[in-house]
Amino acid sequence: MAVTENFDLAHIGGVELFTPKFDESLHFFRDICAMREVARIGDSSYLRCWDEYQLYTLKLTASHTNGVGRTLFRATSEDALQRRVAAIEAAGLGHGWRDPEVGVGRSYEFEDPDGHLMGIYYDTEHYVPDDDDRPALKNQASAYPGRGINARRMDHINYLASDVNKAGEFWRDVMFARESERVRLDDGRYGAWWFRFHQKSYDVVYSDDWTGERGRFHHFAFAPDSREDILKAADICLENGIYIEYGPYKHAINQTFFLYVWEPGGNRIEFANAQARLLLDPDWPVVEWSQAERAKGQAWGMKTVATFHTHGTPFVANQEEIDRKALEGH
Ligand SMILES: [Fe+2]
């Protein structure tokens, strides 16, 4: 049965993404995805999608490597924040409170069992559009860009993990997110695990990292308005030389329509649309898929691309060779 603590997290609040090709990555997110740059501080650009009420969701940071920095999650209230911080501290994974920063108030920093850096906060800065960005309707955060992929909002994040079970148990037992679906491998371990905060079928996902590394990033996803937008996104990426890894197609697990690309810095980005599908049952039982069911491929039968299990960021040594061999079936 769902309990109060299952509703302590509101949504993914922001992600820091590292890129060794800052200018090209900025072009991808700002010009191709139609995000808006709201701040530039040091080596970082802060970017937002048009239907996001907060100041920003993507902190793009120039770096010698790629991968994910800190992911921020918004709590649903100050009480919820305090409950989750107490649980994180009890689990021994807390780093401590951080002062307010761009877009968010005081936050509590921690890491998951796989070493991914995270933060949780409640106080936030609501975006106030200027004359150039004021929407026609007052119930919308900012003006509809109507260009490029036109990403509406950030939807979810998917991490690679050296131990999916440990990471998932943390999200189930400490963060109190509810499981929606999972893949159980023949050896009993989980190969992937999906968690939801509310009625959207997932917000945080962990997948098995076949390289055995800790703390790597698989992808985050933007939600465009419609399935048609994802088909259009594929054409736009093709036209702009953005590597299309997989899709457009429909997932079997959680049934989202998807497209995966690698942005110029090498990080995987997804465009995903769940259409009208929601998990309305607060006690929806977790759906478990066997290794054999998973091996059947996606919803309409297409097999999962081999690089899905090898490509992650930051790159491991010989990442390109590993990906190439995976595609060649070695
Ligand atoms: Fe995804």
From TrEMBL:
Kindly give the Pfam families that the UniProt entry links to this protein.
Answer: Glyoxalase
PROSITE patterns in the record, alphabetically? VOC
EC code: 1.13.11.2
**Could you tell me which InterPro entries the record lists for this protein?**
Glyas_Bleomycin-R_OHBP_Dase, Glyas_Fos-R_dOase_dom, GlyoxalaseI/FosfomycinResist, VOC_core
Keyword Oxidoreductase carried by entry:
yes
UniProt entry keywords in alphabetical sequence: Oxidoreductase
**UniProt domain VOC: residue ranges:** 11-123, 153-274
Extract the GO molecular function terms from the UniProt entry.
catechol 2,3-dioxygenase activity
Is-annotated flag, keyword Oxidoreductase? yes
Q: What is this protein called?
A: Catechol 2,3-dioxygenase
Please report the organism this UniProt entry assigns to the protein: Microbacterium invictum
